[in-house]
Design brief:
The chain is of the alpha/beta class. It has 4 domains: 64 residues, no CATH class; 80 residues, OB fold (Dihydrolipoamide Acetyltransferase, E2P) (Beta Barrel); 193 residues, no CATH class; 75 residues. Helix content is 21%, strand content 39%. The protein has 4 helices and 33 strands. The strands form 5 sheets. The chain has a 6-stranded parallel beta barrel with strand order 22-23-25-27-26-24. Strands 4-8-13-12 form a 4-stranded antiparallel β-sheet, with no helix packed on it. The longest helix has 38 residues. The N terminus is likely disordered.
């Protein structure tokens, strides 16, 4: 606030410069009051947005000892930020619905939208310019321009020259997440896959709206999704396998997945999955899982067969009252720490050799710079470079093995088997190499390795 106590006319400007105020005490000369106000405004550099009608009213009506806003500036306006308008439904719930009994309704899982070639996918609305404002002192207040977004990344689409319209380059499944747009090749089969129709081998994703019957094979590099039932067939996917019903493999059904496997039930099926396996029932199956096996629901049961997971197995019921042999394994029997030490020793040895080749290469390069390029020197240089590259490739492979082993160690470190309701005699538990046969029925417990034996704690 700008003020002097001895003044009879007090004018001040708000901190943002958008308003000016006045307060008049008894003036020395009422006839010259308006002129005094003008001088005070000039002194305070108030030149814009002055309400002279209000000032005339104040002078004429002698409205003293009151505060009035006598000038008003124009506030600046920021421009709108750029944004993407997606022209397909992104609000697809790809997670199954949990029913009242805790089981999973895989049929309720939403399908990823399917688009046609050249279909419009997204439109970019660029940022807009801001509007400048003006202070009561006549100063321009700059309006901020909106912030533009980076172009969408991904694959399977084309972009217009002005970078505002995205279209599908192929027919397939479309997803958009965190400004990454992807259109993946999709083979859509509206009926059954059977021996008469032949198997399926596809580079993208496959959606089968019917059933997959016995004796057939479906092999894809992406996802496999089956709306119907699966019999004694073979499903091989580079990513995920989603069965909205289940699979009765009759001892011949096979699933291999680079990602997760999920389905309503699996009976007499052999499953290998890099990720998780989830179902409402697993009966007489042979399952190897790279992460977690989860069987949900009030009657979510694992009975018969052998199931193994690196991280954990969770089920409502394990085994049955008949004592059916049911083997469950979490963690690993390998000595992962010793394996990690071996890899580290190998990495150190290769690193030393690589350093020697780097030193030799540096020396021979210095000799060539001084003496010139002789044929024997050139041959030696090429030979050393090749050996160095070979060692670097070996070292890179070893480092990848270390990273994979570290991930495996992390999963196995807290390996467990969780029983939400009952576990029956006949169940055989193996956790990180320690095995125990269940002799009495137990309830609502978690089993983990404790020293050289398996212990359990209540979940309550």
């Amino acid at each position: 606030m700008e003020n002097k106590e001895e003044q009879k006319i007090v004018v001040w400007v708000s901190p943002d410069g958008l308003s000016a105020f006045i307060k008049i005490e008894l003036p020395n000369n009422e006839q010259d009051l308006k002129e005094e106000i003008k001088k005070e405004l000039e002194e305070k550099q108030v030149v814009y947005g002055i309400d002279w009608n209000l000032i005339d009213s104040i002078v004429k009506e002698k409205r003293y000892f009151q505060e009035f806003q006598i000038a008003k500036g124009v506030e600046s306006q920021s421009g709108e930020d750029g944004y993407y308008e997606y022209l397909f439904d992104r609000d697809i719930d790809v997670k199954p619905r949990i029913l009242k009994d805790g089981s999973v309704d895989y049929k309720s899982m939403g399908e990823v939208p399917i688009v046609k070639e050249n279909q419009e996918l997204a439109r970019y609305h660029p940022a807009t310019e801001g509007k400048n404002g003006k202070s009561v002192r006549g100063e321009e207040i700059i309006g901020r321009k909106g912030k533009d977004l980076q172009a969408l990344k991904g694959k399977g689409f084309t972009v217009s020259e002005d970078k505002t319209l995205y279209r599908a380059a192929i027919t397939g499944k479309v997803t958009a997440q965190a400004r990454i747009l992807r259109v993946s090749s999709l083979l859509e089969i509206n009926g059954d896959v059977s021996i008469s129709t032949g198997g399926v081998n596809f580079a993208g994703d496959v959606l089968i709206r019917g059933n997959v019957l016995s004796g057939t094979e479906v092999t894809v590099q992406g996802d496999i999704e089956v709306n119907g039932c699966v019999e004694a067939a073979t499903l091989i996917a580079g990513k995920n396998v989603v069965l909205k019903n289940g699979m009765q493999g009759n001892g011949k059904g096979i699933i291999h997945a680079g990602g997760n496997v999920s389905g309503k039930f699996f009976e007499q099926v052999s499953i290998e999955a890099e990720g998780n396996v989830s179902a409402n029932a697993i009966m007489n199956c042979d399952i190897q899982c790279g992460d977690t096996i989860q069987v949900a629901g009030r009657f979510g049961i694992i009975v018969g067969g052998k199931v193994s997971a690196l991280r954990e197995i969770e089920a409502t019921i394990i085994g049955n009252m008949a004592g059916t042999k049911t083997s469950l394994e979490t963690g690993t029997k390998e000595d992962l720490f010793m394996k990690m030490q071996q890899l580290e020793r190998q990495c150190n040895e290769i690193s030393i050799e690589t350093a020697k080749y780097s030193s030799a290469l540096k020396k021979i390069t210095e000799i060539i710079e001084k003496q010139g390029m002789a044929p024997d020197l050139q041959r030696n240089k090429i030979s050393i470079m090749r050996k160095k590259i070979e060692k670097e490739a070996i070292l890179s492979d070893l480092e990848n093995q270390k990273a994979q082993l570290a991930e495996k160690m992390g999963k196995c470190s807290n390996a467990k088997i969780i029983v939400a309701k009952s576990i029956y005699p006949g169940a055989i538990l193996t956790i990180n190499g320690i095995t125990e046969r269940i002799k009495t029925e137990n309830y609502n417990s978690t089993y983990q390795k404790k020293g050289y034996e398996i212990g359990f704690t209540s979940n309550i």
